[in-house]
Design brief:
Number of strands: 12
Order of helices and strands: HEEEEEHEHEEEEEEH
Largest sheet: 7 strands, antiparallel
Distance between the termini: 56 Å
CATH superfamily: Electron Transport, Fmn-binding Protein, Chain A
Helix content: 10-25%
CATH architecture: Roll
Strand order of the largest sheet: 3-2-6-9-10-5-4
């Protein structure tokens, strides 16, 4: 007995109402450096520390993660919307996405974004093809974080947590002018 599946447009509109953090997934290694803005990221387990990310199967980032075997999930701070836009392909002038933002290599070699709320450096543990995406399960080999407000995404726009936390943005906390 089959069940009807909700229409694609209804699903997309409903998902736009789910508040998410804004993340950039990056990788580096034999297949080269790649990265993209990703909305689907979640904790899987604390024993051992494992998370998942969903990456479009047609993307260059998916191919690079597959070959490199590592990725970093960068959860962006409230001052990093321009970086998110660049890695989402919204900046047609950016030929080198990594020229936008302040990057450093993590333990795995994947790029970590300075000023991000959290950086989860991962080794690919398992992957699964699901419809139009590949789901990567990563064992977290390093987690670093800054004390700042996250960048949120809701109804196709960026936002900040409310009520406002008693914390400065990452750039403000470090005295940086971005």
């Amino acid at each position: 007995m089959g069940h009807a599946v909700v229409e694609r447009d209804v699903f997309i509109e409903a998902m736009s109402r789910a508040v998410t953090g804004v993340t950039i997934v990056t990788t580096d290694g034999p297949a080269g450096q790649a990265g993209m803005t990703v909305s689907a990221m979640s904790s899987v387990s604390a024993d051992p520390p494992t998370l998942l990310v969903c990456v479009n199967a047609r993307s260059r980032t998916r191919t690079a993660i597959e070959r490199n075997g590592v990725f970093c999930v960068n959860i962006l701070g409230s001052s990093q919307a321009a970086v998110a836009d660049c890695f989402a392909g919204r900046n047609a002038n950016a030929t080198d996405r990594f020229a936008v933002g302040d990057w450093r290599p993590c333990t795995s070699g994947a790029p970590g974004l300075n000023g991000a709320v959290v950086r989860f450096d991962c080794r690919v543990h398992l992957s699964a093809a699901v419809a139009t995406h590949t789901v990567y399960f990563g064992q977290v080999i390093e987690a670093t974080f800054d004390d700042c407000e996250p960048l949120l995404y809701w109804q196709r726009q960026y936002g900040l947590p409310l009520p406002s936390m008693d914390r400065a943005s990452c750039a403000d906390a470090k005295g940086e002018d971005r």
